[in-house]
Design goal:
The complex is a heterodimer of chains A (about 230) and B (about 160). Chain A has about 230 residues and is α+β, with helices and mostly antiparallel strands. Chain A has three helices and twelve strands. The longest helix of chain A is centred in the last third of the chain and has 40 residues. The relative contact order of chain A is 0.14. In chain B, helix 1 runs antiparallel to helix 2, helix 1 runs antiparallel to helix 4 and helix 2 packs antiparallel against helix 3. Chain B has a single domain, classed as Butyryl-CoA Dehydrogenase, subunit A, domain 3. The chains are: A alpha+beta (about 230), B alpha+beta (about 160). Chain A: It is found in: Membrane.
């Protein structure tokens, strides 16, 4: 006989709460002038509500070095700033953990502050996530963004080209119209109807001429000759 | 006549292809560990291959713009050549085509000259000029000759 034994110990096990990935956002690169202040922003996306045990931590790796040091940590509702490292007395917490903002403010920047700042945030039980890094570049003067001057030069030259083409066709059209009006006043004195009708039909074709050929100077003389021979 | 036409078109297309290769591939300087170009600097020092976008100085952007403009003008001149081939009157000259091609060659020349003059700032001493730089300098006389041929050429038949 089969006995089914129901063992309480394998009843309903308490599974650990499912944790989903947390996504952390910082900037990609920040430029700043020497001596200025800069705010490095860090925020995260998580499917859970913001828990009370949310933590933010910032680490800094100078350019050219392989070690990173920890410069900021927020946990249990208290923010701990750097008081021994390169940012002592220059770091301030300006974020709002309740709104998932873990931004810090760096004051009085120097060239030694060039480097990569990494923000790591945890929102228990969402703890699986990749820390995000922002690169800080300190300049004496802020350089022009890549591509601005390139685009400006290309745009100006092409614009000049278009302008020259437009002006050229405008001039041709105006000169042709002036010749048109001159010829109307000249041939209007002749009394032959047939010639006037033929004149009108040949003169009316003037506005189409600018679009036909692209060879410039000979077409003016061509149209003038055409006009005089048809009368 | 047909042979002449083919030769001229071939010359033009050759100059255009050189311009494209020089601008896109752009191995303008190369050394054992790094190549630096108009658009990107790649270095394989410190182990691993590592590329950075080129510095955002004003002059390198000017060189980029001039190279792109020369490509645009050379393409336009090729298009104009075919248009003028069919619409020009007998005995007419391909002035417009020649003008655009000569302008394209001038742009390449200025770009290459600016790069040469500013290269002590950008290129470390150990690097030599790469083949894209040389192609740019070769494209300049080719385009110039092509443009001059267009200006001299007269349309027959």
């Amino acid at each position: 006989m089969l006995c089914i034994v129901w063992d309480d110990s394998i009843g309903v096990e308490k599974l650990p709460e499912q944790s989903q990935a947390i996504v952390i956002y910082t900037g990609w690169e920040r430029h700043a002038l020497i001596g200025s202040d800069i705010r490095l922003s860090c925020s995260f996306f998580s499917w859970r509500w913001t828990s009370e045990d949310v933590t933010f931590s910032w680490t800094y790796r100078p350019d050219g070095s392989r070690d990173s040091i920890s410069i900021f940590h927020y946990t249990g509702g208290v923010a701990y700033v750097d008081n021994k490292g390169p940012f002592r007395d220059r770091l301030e917490f300006v974020g709002n953990p309740g709104r998932r903002d873990g931004s810090i403010l760096l004051k009085n920047l120097d060239f030694n502050d060039n480097g990569t700042f990494t923000c790591d945030a945890k929102n228990p039980p969402d703890i699986v996530g990749r820390p995000s890094s922002v690169r800080l570049l300190v300049f004496e003067k802020v350089p022009i963004q890549a591509g601005v001057i390139t685009g400006a030069i290309i745009g100006v030259v092409l614009g000049l080209l278009v302008l020259i083409v437009v002006i050229y066709y405008l001039m041709r059209f105006l000169v042709a119209r002036r010749v048109f009006s001159l010829s109307v006043s000249k041939h209007g004195k002749k009394k032959k109807e047939g010639s006037q009708q033929r004149q009108a039909s040949s003169l009316l074709s003037f506005p189409h001429i600018p679009s036909s050929s692209t060879s410039s100077t000979s077409s003016f003389s061509h149209t003038l000759r055409h006009m005089y021979t048809s009368s | 006549m047909l042979l002449l036409l083919l030769g001229i078109i071939l010359l033009h297309v050759a100059a255009l292809v050189l311009l494209f290769v020089s601008t896109i591939v752009s191995v303008w300087t190369s050394s054992e560990t790094s190549t630096s170009d108009l658009w990107i600097n790649c270095t394989s020092a410190n182990g691993g291959y590592h590329c950075d976008p080129a510095s955002t100085g004003e002059w390198i952007q000017a060189v980029q713009a001039l190279m792109i403009l020369s490509i645009i003008f050379s393409c336009l001149s090729l298009l104009l050549f075919f248009i003028q081939l069919f619409t020009l009157q007998k005995g007419g000259r391909f002035f417009l085509t020649g003008t655009f091609q000569i302008l394209a060659s001038l742009f390449v020349m200025s770009g290459a000259i600016i790069y040469t003059v500013m290269s002590p700032d950008w290129v470390p001493e150990v690097s030599a000029f790469g083949y894209s730089y040389i192609l740019a300098w070769v494209a300049f006389p080719l385009a110039l000759i092509s443009g001059l041929i267009y200006v001299i050429l007269r349309k027959r038949e």
